[in-house]
Write a structure and sequence with these properties.
Blueprint (H helix, E strand, L loop, with lengths): L2 E2 L5 E4 L8 H9 L6 E2 L5 H4 L2 E6 L3 H10 L3 H9 L4 E5 H4 L2 E4 L11 E7 L8 E6 L1 E2 L13 E6 L1 E2 L10 E7 L2 E9 L2 E4 L7 H13 L22 E10 L5 E4 L21 H11 L3 E6 L12 H10 L6 E4 L5 E2 L5 E2 L1 H11 L3 E3 L2 H13 L9 H7 L16 H12 L10 E4 L4 H16 L6 E5 L6 H7 L7
Parallel strand pairs: 2-3, 2-4, 4-5, 5-14, 6-7, 15-17, 15-23, 17-18, 18-21, 22-23
Antiparallel strand pairs: 1-2, 7-11, 8-10, 9-12, 12-13, 13-14, 15-16, 19-20
Helix pairs in contact: 7-8, 9-11, 10-12
Length: about 475
């Protein structure tokens, strides 16, 4: 059945088979479009009244797939037809002539310019919540001056005289300015991910689906050039395991000793993962991380309980979801071998946006420091190479050792071929008491006043009641 808007238009999604399109599907449904038709053949482009093209991964991989499926010319024809089009991330980059990421593969050539790698003395990829600066009034953004949206990318397009008529908004990353969205006629595309940008992103989907014409509105914008910057983030980290009854629960303990000290010795239960994640989201958390601390070795990959948890969470949580634990080469109970790439890919397709590599990232970093050789054979290498995602080291221990997380992230990246010039300062606090929380906040403020800066605060399960306090009193301006 064709997807329809309130006006009876057929809405199609162009999925070339990479990354987490489940989040886009959920966001579109949440915006009022309950059924979705996928582009499955070149002929489907002629049937579509609106097309959404989400992209994740590498430019060359995306264009290569479009070429393989014989979609390039039908897509160009659709773009020239004047029908509404929404491109996301790589879906925007493919509109340009080419990309430094894969210089031998041409883009669609709709917009003049070459997509370039960030040239900044900062962490690459550019990852997190940043602002946008409108360059022209738009019906797509009701109030672009205060919008904050979620980015994750290593390549971007820069404003030039040749493409200035296309630019709808710009964003700054340090001293580097790039195009964060484009619009011309009914073609709209964003470098950021609206499906992971909370209520702001959901509103953008609603406008795309409901507006008859996406052309720029008459009006004015501020003449003051406002610099955008990454917003501080609150990340809720939920340790998840099965209890004795086989149910998944959020828990917390000392070195994974999560059982109560009572005679029964039950697994400490801090809540149901899906419900707790949604509550964190509604309370203002900017990202959600699930750490799988149960091996589930007896379950085939497709039956992993964590996959269902991700699917259900992604239905109503529209901020980035990270999964950690078990991202490695595995052997199924029937003897079938699965690579870390296949494991990560399954998690992405189930709703994850990032994967967290723990012990493997440390081990490969140690090996690199011993030998000076990047083998590319680690569990962490293939997912990074294929999906262009950040593999974070999950080390949520006591407050005093939390700053080591940044060092671990750098070490891990050396062996997984991810280029970081610096790593966001991360304060990771794991505690079960309000007293320790207050100590954490004191350390946080000391870090800011000494100039060290704080970009990310990672909170574990018991902190949910204090999310609003942190946002209001300690973290400053966050995502809208």
């Amino acid at each position: 059945m064709d997807t329809t808007t309130s006006s009876g238009e057929a809405v199609y999604l162009l999925d070339y088979g990479a990354g987490n399109v489940r989040s886009v599907i959920n966001a579109v449904r949440h915006a009022g479009c309950n059924d979705l038709k996928f582009i499955e053949t070149a002929a489907d482009f002629d049937k579509a009244d609106r097309i959404i093209f989400p992209g994740v991964g590498a430019f060359g991989q995306c264009m290569g797939k479009l070429i393989e499926l014989n979609y390039v010319e039908p897509l160009r024809k659709y773009l020239a037809s004047g029908k509404p089009f929404l491109g996301i991330c790589i879906g925007m980059q493919t509109l340009f002539e080419s990309s430094e990421e894969n210089p031998d593969i041409p883009g669609l050539g709709v917009i003049p310019g070459v997509v370039e790698r960030f040239k900044v003395d900062r962490a690459v990829p550019h990852m997190g919540w940043n602002g946008i600066r409108l360059t022209k009034p738009s019906s797509f953004f009701e109030d672009g001056t205060d919008e904050r949206v979620y980015f994750v990318h290593s390549f971007c397009a820069q404003p030039t005289n040749a493409n200035k008529d296309w630019i709808m908004s710009e964003t700054d990353y340090g001293d580097f300015t790039f195009i964060s969205s484009i619009q011309k006629g009914n073609i709209i595309a964003t470098q950021f991910h609206p499906e992971k940008s909370g209520k702001t992103g959901l509103a953008l989907f609603k406008r795309f689906l409901s507006l008859k014409k996406l052309d720029v509105d008459a009006g004015t914008i501020s003449s003051v050039k406002r610099t955008t910057k990454l917003a501080p983030r609150i990340i809720a980290c939920l340790d998840v395991r099965s209890n004795d009854a086989g149910d998944l629960v959020v828990t917390k303990g000392d070195q994974y000793d999560v059982r109560e000290k009572s005679d029964a010795g039950d697994v400490r239960n801090l809540g149901k993962p899906v419900a707790l994640a949604q509550q964190y989201y509604e309370d203002g958390a900017d990202e959600i991380t699930f750490l799988n601390i149960t091996s589930f070795r007896s379950s085939p990959l497709q039956d992993q309980p964590m996959l269902e948890l991700l699917r259900r969470t992604a239905e109503n949580v529209f901020v980035p979801l990270t999964i950690g634990g078990g991202i490695r080469d595995i052997v199924e109970p029937d003897g079938t071998k699965k690579s870390a790439l296949e494991v990560a890919g399954t998690y992405f397709r189930s709703g994850a946006d990032k994967v967290s590599i723990g012990s493997d990232a440390v081990l490969i970093a140690e090996e690199y420091y011993k030998t000076g050789i990047k083998t590319g054979r680690s569990d962490g290498h293939q997912p990074t190479h294929t999906y262009t995602v950040k593999l974070t080291v999950y080390q949520c221990k006591v407050l005093e050792s939390a700053w080591n997380m940044g060092e671990m992230s750098v070490a891990g990246s050396l062996a997984t071929s991810v280029t970081y010039r610096s790593v966001a300062h991360v304060l990771s606090a794991c505690c079960l008491s309000k007293k320790f929380f207050d100590v954490s906040m004191k350390k946080l403020l000391e870090a800011r006043t000494t100039g060290m800066g704080l970009e990310v605060l990672t909170l574990c399960s018991p902190f949910r009641l204090w999310v609003k306090e942190i946002r209001t009193n300690h973290m400053g301006e966050g995502p809208s």
